[in-house]
């Protein structure tokens, strides 16, 4: 959050200085819209995902804030988290929705979607050295997903990476009747 706030403050300061010295036409854009635009540019650069006008800045902020959190089986805090804990926290904080507490439970709550149909916020499931689902991540666009890796903690990976391609099972979109957190 501090990194984003600093980046936004610095960019706004530069834009303000330019407007004072270069007669840049003023627009009727509110600061929140400017902040969202700057945040989208920032996350597009650091995560390598081209964010559209409809992209969910809150999703990218959440992922960014958790990057590097160590892996801990059964964990659900920034001191350590596993893949389903990460998905659970993300859905709770970003979408205000409660999902299952393990990858197989979560899969039972989705409508399967094809890899080419994945949208921001969809879930991606993997069967790693198993016949059962063993891993879950959250799709963020441009073939990338965020997840808690057992070797590197929370990170962003490519679905097209040979490792993930080998173990990819299905993508899924949460069913409409998923419970909302109150």
From TrEMBL:
N-terminal signal peptide: 1-19
Residue ranges crossing the lipid bilayer per the database entry: none
Residue span(s) of domain NlpC/P60: 53-175
GO terms under biological process: proteolysis
Keywords: Hydrolase, Protease, Signal, Thiol protease
UniProt family annotation: Belongs to the peptidase C40 family.
Full protein name: NlpC/P60 domain-containing protein
Organism: Mucilaginibacter galii
Taxon lineage: Bacteria, Pseudomonadati, Bacteroidota, Sphingobacteriia, Sphingobacteriales
């Amino acid at each position: 959050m501090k990194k984003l706030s600093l980046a936004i403050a610095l960019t706004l300061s530069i834009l303000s200085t330019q407007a004072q010295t270069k007669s840049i036409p003023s627009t009727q854009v509110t600061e929140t819209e400017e902040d969202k635009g700057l945040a989208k540019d920032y996350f597009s650069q650091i995560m390598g995902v081209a964010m559209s006008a409809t992209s969910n800045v809150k999703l990218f902020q959440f992922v960014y804030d958790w990057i590097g959190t160590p892996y801990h089986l059964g964990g659900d805090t920034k001191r350590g988290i596993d893949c389903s804990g990460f998905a659970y926290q993300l859905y709770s904080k970003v979408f205000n929705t409660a999902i299952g507490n393990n990858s197989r439970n979560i899969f039972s709550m989705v409508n399967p979607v094809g890899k080419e149909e994945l949208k921001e916020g969809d879930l991606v499931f993997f069967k790693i050295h198993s016949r059962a689902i063993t891993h879950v991540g959250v799709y963020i666009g441009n073939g990338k997903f965020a997840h808690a890796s057992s070797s590197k903690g929370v990170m962003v990976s490519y679905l097209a990476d040979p490792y993930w391609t080998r173990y990819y099972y299905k993508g899924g979109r949460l069913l409409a009747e998923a419970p909302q957190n109150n």
